[in-house]
Amino acid sequence: MNSGATAAVAQNRRTRSRPPSAASSRKSDDPSAASANGNGKGPSKPTSPNHVAGERTVKKLRLSKALTIPEGTTVSEACRRMAARRVDAVLLTDVNGLLSGIVTDKDIATRVIAEGLRVEQTIISKIMTRSPHYVTADTLAIEALQKMVQGKFRHLPVVDNGEVIAMLDIAKCLYDAISRLEKAAEQGSALAAAVEGVERQFGSNFSAPSTLIETIRERMFKPSLSTVITESTKVAIVSPSDPVYVAAQKMRELRVNSVVITTGNLLQGIFTSKDVLMRVVAQNLSPELTLVEKVMTAHPDCATLDTSILDALHIMHDGKFLHIPVVDGGKTFLFSA
């Protein structure tokens, strides 16, 4: 999620979690079988959640069971299994069945395809992120969201009683982000209503700058995408005739998860790292020979710079996607969760 949107959602300090130490005797493809190994980096134990009335904890979300595979699996096999489960992240275990790392769709796009590695020959552990952050089942959803935003990752293992029980992705937290912003908007409306009440009571003798109050309310509680997207915002752009390999290189170059496809100034589609995983690698297509136009999402939902962050999040939540093109005249930007 963009940094500006983050400020409107929650404010928390970044923490690094200590991996759980208990190992499970269950089979490695069981989502509960993975327990972290603590590889000497000394991450701190997660802080106790500061529960706020009405806010949900992670265990209240509809969590997805984590896909867990041995770290010696090839990238091609890992992608096939991820596609079969319709997940975009996988946990890896070592020979002792302990959690050793995590691999996501972005890793597949930027660490494999963009580097020209062969998926049939590359072992998944070569591209994994070791000792991943995690959250507990009792962590507030909004705190989990903040951890993902600050750490710039979209997936977190969920730990309960020393075992990884599920995988949390950022999309599951969007509802809670929306709820936070809607509550803030309600507070802004209450502020404006209070000012109007004072004006009615005191009439012309009261010279409160109501226009200023309304402006403040809009900027504080209903910020538009223009507050988080600027001319300097990096956007990866490719043409429909570019191969997937080029799109993956663009993602790696700009450290993003998606590219927009344009012809001149006209938006044609969007292509994400999840598409690389699901539509290319898992389907045994060649990244060098497959054109982006064959695997992109054509004519995607769009927003404008005047669209509020809240409305953009609603569109993304309802459409079950994490990226939305933002069109401004002849320019196209991207807003991502």
From TrEMBL:
It comes from the Eukaryota. Residues 1-56 are annotated as: Disordered. Residues 18-36 have a biased composition (Low complexity). Residues 62-119, 128-183, 229-288 form the CBS domain. Keywords: CBS domain, Repeat. Coiled coil: none annotated. This is CBS domain-containing protein. It comes from Aegilops tauschii subsp. strangulata.
